[in-house]
Design goal:
The chain is an alpha/beta fold. It is built from 29 helices and 21 strands. The protein binds adenosine-5'-triphosphate and magnesium ion. This is DNA 3'-5' helicase.
Length: about 725
């Protein structure tokens, strides 16, 4: 055995070693949470390179999120400092975008195609609804979009959808789907699902392109395979068709994307699709303590539709899992904050990044956020307003899109009056009509601006706008991205608009961060013939619908879905009430098994200590008095209606040891409705209403209306 072999197999157990060294053929690794599946995958990739079985560029590793891809790259980088760069480590969507960027001309599309984000999609729907006289109240955009997405992923084309529609709602949805696809096809733009769909078509219909990638990818790996959907599977199946080396790892108990079309049967029936599939089981958990695993194992046993497997912890029993039921959700959040505070007091602020608070749905973060802010505990939030979804960022990206392709009507509509140039709805509809009549883009209309009957003011504003865009469009091939950006930021008037108001400081910081990232990109060499700006815009579109990356230290707040594959020393699961987790919808629809798997994912993220919290009181969403989640009962953490179980740790709030960072919040009675105040974090605001300790305060943008504890600690009266 060579040294390299030793190095990469060292520190792995026998089954893990087998999974790493079984490089040939179809290999399935099925194993529970924390058993080292992702670790095996990274070691396997490194092993293949060190054993000279393939060049790095001949290896593909597919992950579920950009964050997971970045983490995997980092781990592989560590194992293979010189060789990791050219390995393809990415999500399905990124893989498809990359394949399409090089080859989509075979389908009659330009290589620098634009990818629509969800806002763009809604814009498209808005026009379609107006045309078809469909009311958004009847069919909300998100409903239509998920219908379109499901149809695409099920390979149902608009014609078939139309033919099979019988009920009035189905007929309407089919007509929306048809108009949507027609528009995207005419504009030659793609949405997110199209990345998969077009790649599937390309590989299926174009033998040469398929052969090229089949030859290239000698070894293919997929992490989190339990959440693969049918079309994704077809793509990897085709790609692996020549070398027939495909290694997939996953845990059927962690399948949590059924609602988005993932099909956990694919991993269970994997051996039926290929000859000679080798299955390797890992049964030791290296992540969590036995206490955490016992609770998680006990919970998941309640799923009927599963293959039984039991995990044993490599580590000892550890601390008991704790459950706390608070009187209401504010106290629940306070309990979380206090407990975090105690952990920090005990272990130091160095453990901030090792703490996560997980919740079932995004809306639950609101109180947690305000409580953590009030407690001066820094946090990062994943999955809510993400960087690339912030208004100023989207505006500037739209400018870049327009510079790249002046005929991009969506981008045009977004920024033509941003900053305000006096171009109102009337002028916009004149442009729309003219564009329609002359079959041209909005931007092209401006060539005949004199024929459009605008007032001199509008005409001047539009001409100046067009001039900037055209000039920069012509310069895009020669100027750096950062220069183009700086120029459009300045010349569009956006910079003046933002900097005129000190309240915009965080927006300006966002813009600066974007500019920095462009500068970094400028220093990198591009590896294909599409323009840098085009390539950049495509990459951005991927980020806008994916997870983001925040670098400061802090407690991590995220939904359970986005915590998949991750691990933290200390994990809180907040909001463990019936109708919250499991969700109301899952209870109503009797679809509890996926929800239970989600709880299993949540619990198994914890390494050292797991805290679960719930609250009593009234749930305004379910319109019911809150009760602790049935999952607590199933996991053996709570029994019946009373706290009989010793494992329950329920402390009254007063007993919390308060260290100096969290002081008692002293509520003041000085505050009155209508008063102007300044908050130490949110800035200036006006008190809209008061209800006991709580004040609803309208803060200046971007903070908006917030309900917080009124205390002199955070609030100063202005008058
Ligand atoms: N043989 C081992 N010795 C020591 N630590 C290990 C070993 N195998 C895995 N680990 C560690 O255990 C933890 C869990 O591993 P990993 O994240 O690869 O598990 P996983 O099976 O991918 O989990 P999940 O199902 O949650 O994605 C990691 O911190 C990893 O480094
Ligand atoms: Mg993993």
């Amino acid at each position: 055995m060579s040294d390299a072999k030793h190095r990469l197999l060292d520190g792995l157990n026998a089954n893990q070693q087998q999974a790493v060294s079984t490089t040939e053929g179809y290999v399935r690794v099925i194993a529970g949470a924390g058993s080292g599946k992702t670790r095996v995958l990274t070691h396997r990739v490194a092993y293949i390179v060190e054993e000279h079985k393939a060049w790095p560029s001949e290896i593909l590793a597919i992950t579920f999120t950009n964050k997971a891809a970045a983490e995997m790259r980092e781990r592989i980088d560590h194992l293979l400092p010189d060789d990791s760069r050219s390995i393809w480590i990415m999500t399905y969507h990124a893989l498809c975008a990359r394949i399409l960027r090089m080859n989509i001309d075979a389908l009659g599309y330009p290589r620098d195609f634009i990818i629509l984000d969800s806002d763009d999609q809604k814009q498209v729907l808005k026009n379609i609804y107006a045309e078809l006289h469909i009311d958004i109240k009847e069919i909300p955009y998100n409903f239509a979009l998920s219908h379109i997405s499901n149809s695409k992923m099920d390979l149902i084309n608009p014609k078939d959808a139309e033919a099979s529609a019988t009920f009035p709602l189905e007929v309407k949805l089919a007509s929306i789907y048809k108009a949507y696809v027609k528009y995207l096809t005419a504009q030659k733009v793609l949405d997110f699902d199209d990345l998969l769909l077009f790649t599937y078509k390309l590989l299926k219909e174009n033998a040469e392109v398929l052969a090229q990638y089949q030859r290239k990818f000698k070894y293919i790996h997929v992490d989190e395979f339990q959440d693969t959907n049918g079309i994704q599977f077809e793509i990897v199946k085709m790609l692996s068709g020549m070398h027939e080396n495909l290694c997939i790892v996953g845990d059927p108990d962690q399948a949590i994307y059924g609602w988005r079309g993932a099909d956990p049967k694919i991993i269970l029936d994997f051996e039926q699709y290929f000859k000679g599939v080798q299955t390797i089981i890992l049964d030791r958990n290296y992540r969590s303590t036995q206490s955490i695993l016992n609770a998680a194992n006990k919970l998941i046993e309640h799923n009927r539709d599963r293959v039984k497997k039991d995990l044993q912890a490599h580590h000892g029993m550890g601390e008991a899992v704790s459950f706390f039921e608070a009187a209401d959700d504010t106290q629940e959040a306070q309990y979380v904050a206090h407990t975090i505070d105690q952990l920090l007091a005990e272990h130091g602020n160095g453990i901030l990044n090792d703490i996560a608070v997980l919740y079932r749905s995004n809306y639950l973060s609101r109180i947690l956020e305000t409580t953590l802010i009030d407690a001066h505990i820094p946090y990062r939030i994943y999955g809510d307003i993400r960087f690339y979804e912030r208004k100023e960022i989207k505006d500037m990206i739209s400018y870049l899109r327009l510079i790249h392709n002046p005929n991009d009507d969506l981008a045009f509509n977004r920024v033509v009056n941003e900053p305000k140039r006096g171009i109102g709805p009337k002028a916009m509809s004149v442009l729309a009509d003219y564009a329609e009549a002359n079959n041209c883009s909005r931007f092209e209309c401006l060539a005949n601006i004199d024929a459009l009957g605008f007032t001199p003011k509008v005409r001047k504003a539009l001409s100046e706008f067009a001039e900037v865009i055209i000039e920069l469009h012509e310069l895009q091939a020669t100027k750096s991205l950062a220069d183009i950006f700086a120029e459009v930021y300045q010349r569009s008037g956006y910079k003046d608009m933002l900097t005129a108001d000190p309240q915009n400081q965080s927006r300006v910081e966002n813009i600066n961060a974007l500019e920095t990232s462009l500068k970094e990109l400028d220093t990198q060499e591009s590896d294909d013939d599409t323009s840098k700006l085009a390539a950049y815009l495509q990459d951005i579109a991927l980020y806008t619908s994916q997870d983001d990356d925040q670098n400061d230290d802090g407690v991590t707040l995220m939904t359970v879905h986005s915590a998949k594959g991750l691990e933290f020393d200390y994990v809180f699961i907040y909001g463990m009430n019936d109708a919250v987790f499991p969700s109301k919808r899952s209870l109503e629809e009797g679809n509890i098994e996926e929800e239970r798997r989600l709880a299993y994912v949540a619990m198994t993220r914890a390494k050292k200590q797991l805290y679960i919290t719930a609250s009593a009181g009234y749930n305004f969403i379910s319109k019911m008095t809150k009760v602790p989640s049935l999952f607590l009962n199933e996991a053996g953490l709570w029994e019946g209606n009373q706290y009989k179980n010793e494992r329950i740790i329920q402390k009254p709030l007063e007993t919390f040891k308060k260290n100096d960072r969290i002081q008692n919040i002293e509520v003041s009675t000085d505050f009155k409705t209508g008063q102007k105040v300044t908050h130490n974090k949110y800035g200036d605001g006006i008190i809209v209403s008061l209800d006991g300790d709580l004040g609803t305060i309208a803060f200046a943008k971007p903070h908006g209306i917030k309900t917080i504890v009124v205390s002199h600690q955070f609030l100063k009266i202005k008058e």
